[in-house]
């Protein structure tokens, strides 16, 4: 009871409670986040295209899928077309090669024919157009003929003319008869081979043929020769 008394210090309730504050770095982080989000919103609203609604996005997706399908279809069509083009080009190349071979063969044949024609005996009558050879056969009421004509001074240009065949023989009653067959238009270059058949009168027996080369029907004679009929 009589001990030394101690001083008792009394503090108010409010001064004993500690004050808690947010760290500065957390405040800066939150402010930066808010400002960044606001900036994104501002950029999206002012500068970027407007956001699509759900229906617009579905329509856009559908249009894209349709366009992509069309692109794939066109790609397949293009591949088929290119394949067909390559096949056509190959066929054209082969045809061109065959045509070149045919032309070369035809040229060789023309050269060979010219050599054979030049080796034939000359026309004893001469003329602007020479009748170098001829073959005539009568069978079944028709006359088959093959006549070889040449020109020495053709100058590379063909000369128009008419071939007239006069067939001499005997009629059905045995009387001597000459039959003029239908005239044949022709064009004579350095050489020309005329082939064909013409009908003969019924019962007519041909013996020989007079070959006349004229510049026109009933015109000036360019050459003539008489050959037998076999």
Describe this structure as you would to a colleague.
This protein has helices spanning 13-16, 24-46, 54-119, and strands spanning 130-139, 142-150, 159-170, 176-180, 184-188, 191-199, 205-214, 221-228. With 230 residues, it is an alpha+beta fold. It has a domain at 130-228: Immunoglobulin-like, CATH 2.60.40. Strands 3, 4, 5, 7 and 8 form a five-stranded antiparallel sheet that branches. A three-stranded antiparallel sheet has the order 1-2-6, with no helix packed on it. It is rod-shaped.
Could you name the key traits of this structure?
230 residues; alpha+beta; Immunoglobulin-like; five-stranded antiparallel beta sheet; 40% helix; rod-shaped
Work out the strand percent: 25-35%
- How much helix, percentage-wise, in residues? 40-55%
Given as residue ranges, the uncertain stretches (5+ residues, pLDDT < 50) are: none
What sort of overall outline do the alpha carbons produce when their principal axes are compared?
A: rod-shaped
Report the biggest beta sheet as strand number plus sense, adding barrel if it closes: 5 strands, antiparallel
Can you give me a brief rundown of this structure?
The protein is 40% helix and 30% strand.
List the helices and strands and how they pair.
Blueprint: H1 13-16, H2 24-46, H3 54-119, E1 130-139, E2 142-150, E3 159-170, E4 176-180, E5 184-188, E6 191-199, E7 205-214, E8 221-228
